[in-house]
Amino acid sequence: MDIALLRIDDRLVHGQVVIGWIPHLKAQAVVVACDAAAADETQTMLMEMAMPEGVALLVLPVERAAQRLLDAADPRRALALVPGPREALRLLELGVACAAVNVGGLHYTAGRVQLGKAIFLGDEDRAALGAISGRGVALEGRALPGDPALDIAALLGGRA
User: Fold this and answer.
1) Phi/psi zone of residue 71: left (φ > 0), alpha (ψ -120 to 50 degrees), beta?
2) pLDDT recorded at residue 158
3) Residue 18 in contact with residue 41, Cβ under 8 Å?
4) Sorting pLDDT into bands at 50, 70 and 90, what band is 114?
């Protein structure tokens, strides 16, 4: 697959993705790499209902998602979605290559500290993002394609 974007967003498929990113990227497939979502038929069904016609949705555990994204025989342009930085790092560790990771939304939960408008990070999130940056992958923070991009690595204090 041609990976148009690897996006971290704890809401996975929602309006910003469907209305903003899929048409902007001209994505033909959305690959959700999330162990919990892949095990939840209801969540998968709801995401399928939100997909635009003609755009395929694959909701897979992280390891299987990496295999599909690495499938060179599949020529589709894909948007890869993960719920958090650890899943993005895992995809990279499994061989998925991309020049940049978009951090679109990590919402507040207890113990997380705000870094951007809708970006709240805990210690594990910071460590995973630092490891991603340390691999030479750019980290941009923005919700929609037209939003100004935050340099997440700089906000984290540079590379890990």
Assistant:
1) beta
2) 56
3) no
4) confident
Query: One-letter amino acid identity for 124?
Result: E
What are the φ and ψ backbone dihedral angles of 135, each rounded to 5 degrees? -85, 0
Instruction: Quote the CA–CA distance of 54 and 111 in Å, as a whole number.
Output: 40
Q: Give the pLDDT confidence of 14-43 residue by residue, as tens digits.
A: 999 999 999 999 999 999 999 999 999 999
Name the token pair of 16.
Answer: 């910003």
Please give the Cα distance from 30 to 24 (Å, whole number). 13
Task: Give the integer Cα–Cα distance in Å for 47 and 160.
Answer: 34
Number of H-type helices and E-type strands within the chain: 8, 9
Given the residues 5, 6, 8, 14, select the one marked as catalytic.
14
- Using only the alpha carbons of the chain, give its radius of gyration: 15
107 assigned to active site: no
Residues 6+ apart with CB under 8 A from 126: 156
The token pair that represents 83 in the structure block: 């719920």
Length of the chain, please? 160
